[in-house]
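Most newcomers find our protein records easier to grasp once they have seen one. Nothing more is needed to start thinking about how sequence determines fold. Here is such a record, shown just as it appears in the course material:
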Amino acid sequence: MFNKKSFAVLKKLTVFSVFLCLALSCKDNMPITFKETVFNSKTTADIDILYPKVTEAHPIAKQINTEIEHYISQRLLFKDTTAQISIKAAAAAFDNELNQFKTAFPETPQHWEALIEGEVLYQTPALICIGISSYTYTGGAHGNDTIAFLNFNPETGALFTKAELFQNLSEFSALTESFLKKEIEIGKRETMADYFFGEAFKLPESIGFNEEGVIMLYNKYEIASYAQGITEFVIPYSEAEPFLKIMP
């Protein structure tokens, strides 16, 4: 259904092609099962959303589903908020912004769209990694596409923080930097600051997991220019293990 470049990147990272009846044990020995959920709206803008949702029977379903739906809603809103807004309400707000624009500039043709797709990338008794790829277009030369990873604790349903996942971050950063240099093939006259807009190297905002290792993903504008696109690579568990507080 979606054919944006970012969705192709997400598909490449996917361990599972579908997540119907995907289940592993939690602390209560009750399987955490995800089902495919679809939301579409063509009221004003074109909005297509596909995402995994924990079946309501599980005791931590609400916690995980709330986090996933909150992230998706944020992609449709024009300002960050900690308030919990449903996907339906966020889609209505997205439509409302377009209607206001059309009212202010009636002679300007506008077609807005939002394409969001999420899926289970990796699931073990220690961690659940959800990948969410989003593309929004609200005018201009190009749209905004982003990939994010939500790493859940299967026992509580809470999102892991970076500090809960990794230790010795300075050494892990050095390891990540070495992988990045290989990925982007830095020339002899270039420095890492050339790719981080004059600043020092930093870890990506999007860090996920799959069966091969730790996924490090820099979205557009996070490193280099828009033309650079998404930069992603995987650090094998054999090299990342000393820095992991949990072994996925």
Remarks:
- The chain has two domains: 5-154, 163-243.
- The helical segments are 5-13, 61-76, 87-104, 162-165, 169-184, 237-240.
- The longest strand covers residues 113-123.
- The CA atoms of residues 21 and 75 lie 27 Å apart.
